[in-house]
Amino acid sequence: MRTYEAVFVFDPQVVKSKKEALVQVNKIFKPAASKIIETQAWGERSLAYPIKKKTQGWYLCLTVELDEAKLGEISKNLKLETTILRHLLIKQ
Q1: For residue 9, what are the CA distances in angstroms to 15, 35, 59, 68, 87?
Q2: pTM here?
Q3: 2-91 under CATH 3.30.70.60, yes or no
């Protein structure tokens, strides 16, 4: 298992708190048998450019431990999640 840092930008009309954001993220990471080590809520911020006609985004940063083999499945599920405007997964 490797450690990854994940940053998510959520639609602020749907996600308004850290708890709501974690519910959305847990739907994706729990089936992959991953472990969330650290959570940082950055809150609502302005976007540098509009994404899906949104100018604001709700940011969440996670440190996650997961199996490399499950990375493709997680990335696919993150792209399909409609509440997440953008995501970034980086190996630490």
Answers
A1: 10, 20, 5, 23, 6
A2: 0.88
A3: yes
